[in-house]
Design goal:
single chain, 372 residues, alpha+beta, Phosphorylase Kinase, domain 1, Transferase(Phosphotransferase), domain 1, six-stranded mixed beta sheet, three-stranded antiparallel beta sheet, 15 helices, globular, binds adenosine-5'-triphosphate, transferase, Pti1-like kinase, ATP-binding, Prot_kinase_dom
């Protein structure tokens, strides 16, 4: 087993940090988790991700949990599990889904989290809860700022800093008060202090992937900023990151949003489900920040610290600078995204290790687009 020492002893936490949120984590027995989930009953299943299924459960004290059960046992999964566990064990913030415990018995590897009763942002925007229209504008704004603060913590305050690498609507969970909890650190890797980026395997979800990450496998904090920009556009507009135009062509959400932002057509950008009930100044902030975040050139993107400041409207000067940015003065979509558009069908999720640029381009259906 590849458990790290931090995980085994559980004493390396900063006690003050721990006290801020959930109590400390603990080891669960398999028997206890079987009892809590009705033997991992199909009816308890919340969903399935890249590494396994997630089940709802209830402990003897009445508290509700979500148990992630790894599906296939292999050395690779073992490594991912210990990575996730090590990272989760260290990180505590009000907007990050924290680990409640784990179980490692025989061939079973399970991670226990608090159950988020309002499920994922994805389920409200496009899934099972979308018809209920529970996300009014103030909730959306709160989710935007909360998730930005969670990611800011990963990038700027966790030691060492952490790149999430799979920011997307299904990884933003919502608690009973619709407070955002950024989840799924299974893909995250710890960045050594001082390093600006790590070149490593590409993992992420199509539509949210920064072009330089998709093409070259260069993961950095600015890749998360890019994905967060897509998520903000999705939150404000209710649209999916990639929209199918016809049988062969797809359009990205940024290609759709930029011309409307340039023409200041905010009512067309807002999710129709809001029925016009939004604060225009806030919507404007979200849209401009989102588009800047998802700029094709990483150096043009803001940091997450700046994103939080802008979203909160803390600096009027910085916002007016942003509003007057040349990006929003005229239609410069081609310059903004280097002429990239998504053509042809492609899979939604890239999970395999891709060694070459060519393989990558083929896989995400962006062949040649970014070079034009
Ligand atoms: N703590 C939780 N509370 C409530 N629902 C949860 C919780 N954790 C996960 N889920 C739900 O379980 C499902 C599977 O989650 P999981 O993190 O395994 O995969 P994913 O995020 O959908 O995909 P991927 O593995 O590609 O990131 C998702 O629909 C997610 O919303």
């Amino acid at each position: 087993m590849a458990f790290c020492p931090i995980f085994c002893c559980g004493k390396s936490f900063d006690r003050k940090q721990r006290g801020k949120k959930q109590l400390s984590w603990r080891v669960f027995s398999l028997k206890e988790l079987h009892a809590a989930t009705n033997n991992f009953n199909y009816d308890n299943k919340l969903g399935e991700g890249g590494f396994g299924s997630v089940y709802w459960g209830q402990l003897w004290d009445g508290s509700q949990i979500a148990v992630k059960r790894l599906k296939v046992w292999s050395n690779k999964a073992d490594m991912e599990f210990s990575v996730e566990v090590e990272i989760l064990a260290r990180v505590r913030h009000k907007n990050l889904l924290s680990l409640r415990g784990y179980c490692a018995e025989g061939q079973e590897r399970l991670i226990v989290y608090d159950y988020m009763s309002n499920l994922s942002l994805h389920s409200h925007l496009h899934g099972q809860h979308s018809a209920e229209c529970l996300l009014d504008w103030s909730r959306r704004m709160n989710i935007a700022i909360g998730s930005a603060e969670g990611i800011t913590y990963l990038h700027h305050h966790a030691t060492p800093h952490i790149i999430h690498r799979d920011i997307k609507a299904s990884n933003v969970l919502l608690d009973s008060n619709f407070e955002a909890q950024v989840a799924d650190f299974g893909f995250a890797k710890l960045i050594p202090d001082g390093a600006t980026h790590v070149t490593t395997r590409v993992k992420g979800t199509l539509g949210y992937l920064a072009p330089e990450y998709a093409m070259l496998g260069k993961a950095s904090e600015s890749c998360d900023v890019y994905s967060f920009g897509i998520l903000l556009l999705e939150l404000a507009s209710g649209r999916k990151p990639i929209e199918k135009l016809n049988s062969t062509m797809k359009r990205t959400i940024t290609d759709w949003a930029l011309p409307l932002a340039c023409e200041r057509k905010f009512s067309e950008l807002a999710d129709p489900k809001l029925n016009g009930n939004y604060v225009e100044e806030e919507l404007k902030r979200v849209i401009f920040v989102a588009i800047l975040c998802s700029h094709s050139q990483p150096e043009r993107r803001p940091t997450m610290l700046e994103v939080v400041e802008l979203l909160k409207g803390e600096s009027k000067e910085k916002f007016s600078e942003l509003e007057n940015n040349e990006l929003f003065r005229s239609l410069q979509a081609a310059d903004y995204n280097d002429g990239a558009s998504v053509a042809e069908d492609s899979s939604d999720f890239i999970s395999e290790e891709k060694e070459t640029k060519h393989e990558l381009k083929e896989n995400i259906g962006l062949a040649d687009a970014h070079n034009s």
